[in-house]
Structures are given as structure tokens and as C-alpha cells.
């Protein structure tokens, strides 16, 4: 589960279809031939790929550069078992020659053939640690390769509900030899027409709608049937598609611009969610050439009015959807602003590309990726009522010193987030360790500016930036391109901050040239946030 924010932040501030399509360009390669060659190179260059006799691979994504360079992403299996942290990306020249490989695996896999701990014992361990109001369980024996030495382990998935009402899809990794919990994370991602929308936060906007059974519906056939449904304050089920009786232009108006209990007013938050989803679809299509979350042209859907006074929003892979709470009306309003909608949809994109595990430094990078593109979409929308900025959720926070959930300019202003990388930053909750990458993205985009409270990081193991270094930004547009390429081409499930530095430097080199100003700026920005 990927929440928009960690509940503790409320007081301070007041979760598949796999993409097998490459870039849309002329002269697409014979992908079957390319994949066969990539598999052969995995074996031929085993020193780079850590391949072994019992390894097998399945393609999960393909990217084709304009110059013909190919990047083919694989999941790894060992003796038929899934290898968590074993994914890799093979990079090939247009000629077919091997260029390099990106992977998280640190050492060759050499684990026991059988488990000494039973699946039943592993389930008990998981229940004891994270049971809660668990309604279901699913154990899987696999190879856990996110640590230094691969180990045989169980991925015990627990399905249930968290205390705040958010669904839970917990992964508890239990060592199959010692019964120790190696890692755990929740797989729900939070936060995060030809009609007219009157949303709560974005003024009067255009919405593309559809006609279903003689009624206007909040479904967008031009964007893969993106749609919004009314959960009617429930937390289970698929909701009811928002519809309006009538077929005229006058009837095709969604919301009143205000919160209320009438049918029209209840459509207000839905108009926000639909508008934010549409702008996110357009941004990734027009800026990055991506057609939907899974790059297959299929739209997701938004569950609006989720729960009663639920103060969060989240993405779930299992339903390929976002859920948005209404807030409590005092601290938080409905969590349906543009940046929150984009934040949640980006969790879906991350799960279908690098699939950054929601734990440790990779979890912080997962959250930061959603903040980065949430901000990017807000700027892209160019909506004067909700103008672009480097704050997350500034429209939904109603009380408190900080009228936002997170700041990319000075992440530590919330009292929890880290401005700077330090050796134990991975021990922070993912919404707080994300601050390092958020800070990096701001400095890379904008640089240091007089009158703006964004500082560089001084030497030392510190969370808060106190340095006075000077940086020149390369523009947000270039920074967005670099982060997207790093995410989709170089990052893997266990990428940490050191790996993110390497991935973004490689992406900048690809996009702007070796020894380019942009490549140097990326390196400088990472150094400025304490990750040299």
C-alpha cells in the first residue's frame, strides 16, 4: 500500500498489466529477436548479470531510444522461484551489441534447496508482527536478494485493514532458515471531457465524459476509459460510476465547486479526481510518450468518498485504482487535488517500471518519484486556481503552521523529513526518507536562490541542511526528463540513493551528452544533498 503521507504528518501539517510496448517511433525492432539476444547476453556476460545455471528470466518492459538503443527489463527466477531484488535491465546498442546491465543483485545466488521453516510457521511469524485486522494470507517461497547475501525466504502477504481504515496488502519477508523477519512493507500506495467540471480546488475545468445506458457518465474514452466512482463512504467494493441523467450540454456539469450532501455537490470531489487523472495521463503521454500507467493505453479509476472522514489517499495495484478520502473537514479537506491525484497514479507507473520496493531507501525513492511527478503534473496543468509549486497537498491542508503535507524546497520543515542523505536515512519512514530525493530534484531544477529557504547539505551525518553552497538549476523540464529515464531504464527494485545517483547521471548522459552541463549538474545536486 502506498499512502500519500504517514499519519503522524497530519498533526505537523495541521497500490497488473505489464507494459511490453516500446517508444512510439518508426522502425521498431523485432522485439522477439531482441529479447532472444538479450537472454543470450545475460548468459554470455554473467560477470555483469550474475547469471547461473538455475536462472530463468521473463520480460516485463521494453524501451526503445530514438537512436535505436534498446533497454529490456527482466524479472529473474531461480529454480522456479521468484527472486525478490533479482530484476535487471539489459542495454543494447542499435547494432545489437551488449552495452551494459542494470541490476540490484549484489552476489551470486546460492541458497538451500529446501526450507527448514514451514510455511505455517512463517505465517504465524507474519501474523504476530503485522496481523492487525487481517482477512487473508498468501505465502510464497522465494529468494530474497535485497540484502547483501541472497537467502531462501517466504513472502507472506497479509490482506486486511489498517487502524485508519486504509486497506492493507502487507508483504512480510520471513527467513526460511531462521524465521526472522527480514523486511516488511505494505503494497497499497498512498499519498497520494466534453463536459464541464466544477471541482473544489481547480476552478471551472473541461472534462471529457461518456454516455452509458442513456446517462452521462464520468468516464473518459479518450484516455483509456479513466473513470471515477462513488464509494459512498464505504471501504469495500468497486463503487458506483458517477452519472447524470440527461444528454445535453447543460446537464453535463460535474460538481458545484463546494462540499455538500446533495447529489450535485457529491460530484465535486469526483470532478477533482477525474481532472487530476486526466492531466496526469496527458502529462505522461505528451512529455514522456507514455500511454497510461502500464503504457498499454488502459486507464485506471478513482474511488471517491472512500471511508468516513478518511484522511488519506492511496494507490492499489490489485484494483489498478486510486482511493481518495474526504478528510475530516477540520485538518484536511478532500484529498483530491491535482498533485495528489498525480502522486497516486505515479505509484502505479513506478510499480510497472523500476518497481521500487516500499521499504528502506528504495521506498523513499518510490515516494519521492510520486512527489516529483505530482509536482510536474501540477505545473503542466497550468491551472491558475491551483498553480504549480514545490509543495505537496497545499490545497487540502486546512489548519496548522505548514499549510501543506510536504515541501520539496526544505523537506525538514515538517519536523520529520530529511533534507540530506545520511547512513541511517533508510531507517526513516518512506514519506520522510523521500525528502532527500525531493530536495535533490528541487536543487537540480531551480538551484539555490536568494530569498528561498533551500540550503545545501554540510558535511556530516545530519538530517537537516545547513550548508551555504551555490547551485545553478537546469530547469524543471530537464530534471523531469532525467528522473523519468532513470526510473524506466536504470533503476531496479532495490535501487538506493547511491544507485539513484548513478541512474540519474547515466540518464543525463544519455539525454544531454557525456560531460554535459546537465550531467555535471546532476552530480553536483546529489553532492549538495549529501550523497556524493
Describe the overall structure:
The protein is α+β, with helices and mostly antiparallel strands. Among the domains are: 31-103, Roll (Nuclear Transport Factor 2, Chain: A); 119-188, Nuclear Transport Factor 2, Chain: A (Roll), CATH 3.10.450. It is built from twelve helices and 25 strands. It has helices spanning 8-13, 31-44, 46-49, 119-130, 263-288, 338-351, 360-381, 430-433, 435-446, 476-490, 497-512, 517-528; strands spanning 2-3, 55-64, 70-78, 81-84, 88-92, 98-103, 136-144, 151-161, 167-175, 181-186, 188-190, 195-197, 205-207, 210-212, 215-217, 219-220, 226-230, 240-241, 243-245, 253-254, 301-304, 313-316, 321-324, 391-392, 406-407. Strands 2, 3, 4, 5, 6, 7, 8, 9 and 10 form a nine-stranded mixed beta sheet that branches. Strands 1, 11, 16, 17, 18, 21, 22 and 23 form an eight-stranded mixed beta sheet that branches. A three-stranded mixed beta sheet has the order 13-12-20. A hairpin with a 2-residue loop joins β3 and β4 (81-84). The chain starts with a strand and ends with a helix.
CATH class of the domain at 31-103: Alpha Beta
- State the helicity in percent bands: 25-40%
Question: Looking at the chains present, what oligomeric state does this protein adopt?
Answer: single chain
User: Over all CA atoms, what is the radius of gyration?
Assistant: 23 Å
Number of helices: 12
**pLDDT below 50 for ≥5 consecutive residues: which ranges?**
8-26
Beta-strand fraction estimate: 15-25%
Q: Average pLDDT value?
A: 90
**Largest sheet report:** 9 strands, mixed
Give the class from helix and strand content and strand pairing: alpha+beta
Roughly how many Å apart are the termini?
A: 31 Å
Judging from the principal axes of the Cα atoms, what is the shape? globular
Remind me, CATH topology of the domain at 31-103? Nuclear Transport Factor 2, Chain: A
Tell me how many strands there are.
Answer: 25
Do you know the CATH architecture of the domain at 31-103? Roll
Amino acid at each position: 500500500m502506498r499512502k500519500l503521507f504517514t499519519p503522524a504528518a497530519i498533526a505537523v501539517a495541521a497500490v497488473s498489466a505489464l507494459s511490453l510496448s516500446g517508444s512510439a517511433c518508426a522502425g521498431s525492432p523485432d522485439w522477439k529477436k531482441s529479447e532472444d539476444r538479450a537472454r543470450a547476453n545475460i548468459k554470455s556476460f554473467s560477470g555483469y548479470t550474475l547469471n547461473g545455471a538455475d536462472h530463468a528470466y521473463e520480460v516485463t518492459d521494453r524501451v526503445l531510444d530514438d537512436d535505436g538503443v534498446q533497454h529490456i527489463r527482466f524479472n529473474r527466477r531461480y529454480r522456479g522461484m521468484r527472486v525478490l531484488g533479482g530484476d535487471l535491465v539489459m542495454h543494447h546498442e542499435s547494432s545489437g551489441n551488449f552495452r551494459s546491465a542494470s541490476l540490484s543483485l549484489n552476489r551470486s545466488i546460492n541458497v538451500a534447496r529446501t526450507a527448514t521453516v514451514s510455511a505455517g510457521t512463517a505465517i504465524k511469524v507474519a501474523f504476530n508482527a503485522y496481523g492487525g485486522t487481517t482477512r487473508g494470507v498468501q505465502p510464497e517461497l522465494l529468494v530474497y536478494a535485497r540484502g547483501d547475501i541472497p537467502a531462501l525466504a517466504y513472502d507472506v502477504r497479509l490482506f486486511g485493514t489498517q487502524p485508519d481504515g486504509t486497506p492493507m496488502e502487507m508483504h512480510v519477508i520471513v527467513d526460511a532458515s531462521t524465521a526472522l523477519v527480514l523486511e516488511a512493507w505494505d503494497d497499497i500506495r498512498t499519498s497520494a471531457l466534453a463536459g464541464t467540471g466544477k471541482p473544489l480546488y481547480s476552478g471551472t475545468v473541461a472534462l471529457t465524459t461518456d454516455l452509458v445506458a442513456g446517462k452521462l457518465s464520468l468516464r473518459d474514452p479518450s484516455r483509456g476509459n479513466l473513470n471515477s466512482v462513488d464509494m459512498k463512504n464505504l471501504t469495500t467494493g468497486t463503487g458506483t460510476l458517477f452519472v447524470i441523467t440527461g444528454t445535453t450540454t447543460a446537464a453535463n456539469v460535474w460538481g458545484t465547486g463546494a462540499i455538500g450532501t446533495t447529489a450535485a455537490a457529491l460530484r465535486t470531489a469526483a470532478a477533482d479526481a477525474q481532472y487530476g487523472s486526466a492531466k496526469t495521463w496527458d502529462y505522461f503521454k505528451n512529455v514522456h510518450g507514455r500511454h497510461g500507467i502500464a503504457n498499454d493505453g488502459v486507464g485506471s479509476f478513482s474511488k471517491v468518498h472512500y471511508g468516513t472522514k478518511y484522511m488519506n489517499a492511496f494507490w492499489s495495484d490489485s484494483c489498478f485504482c486510486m482511493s481518495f478520502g474526504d478528510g475530516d473537514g477540520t485538518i484536511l479537506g478532500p484529498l483530491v487535488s491535482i498533485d495528489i491525484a498525480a502522486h497516486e497514479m505515479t505509484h502505479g507507473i513506478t510499480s510497472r517500471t523500476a518497481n521500487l520496493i516500499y521499504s528502506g531507501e528504495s521506498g523513499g525513492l518510490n515516494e519521492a518519484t510520486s512527489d516529483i511527478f505530482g509536482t510536474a503534473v501540477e505545473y503542466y496543468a497550468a491551472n491558475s486556481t491551483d498553480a504549480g509549486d514545490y509543495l505537496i497537498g497545499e490545497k487540502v491542508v486546512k489548519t496548522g503552521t505548514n499549510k501543506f503535507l510536504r515541501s520539496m524546497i526544505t523537506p525538514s520543515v515538517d519536523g520529520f523529513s530529511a533534507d540530506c542523505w545520511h547512513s541511517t536515512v533508510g531507517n526513516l519512514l518512506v514519506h520522510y526518507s523521500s525528502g532527500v530525493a525531493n530536495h535533490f530534484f528541487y536543487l537540480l531544477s531551480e538551484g539555490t536562490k536568494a530569498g528561498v529557504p533551500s540550503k545545501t547539505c554540510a558535511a556530516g551525518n545530519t538530517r537537516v541542511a545547513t550548508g551555504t553552497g551555490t547551485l545553478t538549476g537546469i530547469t524543471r523540464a530537464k530534471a523531469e526528463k532525467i528522473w523519468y529515464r532513470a526510473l524506466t531504464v536504470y533503476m531496479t527494485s532495490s535501487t538506493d540513493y547511491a544507485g539513484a545517483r548513478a541512474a540519474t547521471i547515466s540518464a543525463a548522459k544519455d539525454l544531454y551528452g557525456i560531460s554535459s552541463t546537465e550531467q555535471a549538474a546532476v552530480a553536483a545536486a546529489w553532492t549538495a544533498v549529501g550523497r556524493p
